[in-house]
């Protein structure tokens, strides 16, 4: 894949080519990590004719250094902590709890805004393609994987456009399969590898999910 990638939609279409064996498969579900993973996941789900849904994960930013992930939480009370960061920055447990409770409130807000009255998808026994727009530490994706394991997913495939090589190895160990377009070094930041890496809004997430769900409802009613 030539870098930088034009935008998230282009990244999704390129990833879909690597995932072509899953096209039209029953019991396969594409989950986009909100917010940035949803535009990527939308293109994958559309291209492969698979249902699209949402994986809600919130990064736990280290106090005073919010860009550093000390862990992440996911729907269903899942929490993954980065012990290396906690030790190296000597972050007390109370500080973790304060950040986690604030992020839990935001996670619940997002669930309401994005999902509305759309019920959560059934995960048990499914092959789930978990999608983000890129990973740095991988904390959010690992929290997503943990949440899917908790819900008895039959198989977990991680799909990301860009990742540092060492993070990709960690994700390959945690998931059943991981596909990635590029592993540039030095990595620095996800945004460095995109031409357009705008902040994805709630409205964009809601629009893409709504479009995907409308198509699914139509195919079910015609089926």
Radius of gyration: 17 Å
Query: Which range does the strand content fall in?
Result: 15-25%
Query: Briefly, what CATH class of the domain at 8-56 and 121-222?
Result: Alpha Beta
Contiguous low-pLDDT stretches (5 residues minimum) are none
User: What's the order of the H and E elements?
Assistant: HEHEEEEHHEHEHEH
What is the molecular shape?
globular
Largest sheet geometry: 5 strands, parallel
Per CATH, which architecture of the domain at 8-56 and 121-222? 3-Layer(aba) Sandwich
Features:
globular; alpha/beta; 7 helices; 3-stranded antiparallel β-sheet; Rossmann fold
3D architecture notes:
The protein is globular. The strands form 2 sheets. It has a 5-stranded parallel sheet, with helices on both faces. Strands 3-4-5 form a 3-stranded antiparallel sheet. The protein has helices at residues 8-18, 37-48, 83-88, 93-115, 139-150, 165-174, 202-222; strands at residues 28-33, 52-55, 57-62, 65-74, 78-81, 127-131, 155-162, 177-182. The chain contains 7 helices and 8 strands; from the N terminus they run αβαββββααβαβαβα. The protein has a domain at 8-56 and 121-222: 3-Layer(aba) Sandwich (Rossmann fold).
Give a quick precis of the structure.
This protein is of the alpha/beta class. Helices cover 43% and strands 22% of the residues.
What's the SSE blueprint?
Layout lengths: L7 H11 L9 E6 L3 H12 L3 E4 L1 E6 L2 E10 L3 E4 L1 H6 L4 H23 L11 E5 L7 H12 L4 E8 L2 H10 L2 E6 L19 H21 L1
Parallel strand pairs: 1-2, 1-6, 6-7, 7-8
Antiparallel strand pairs: 3-4, 4-5
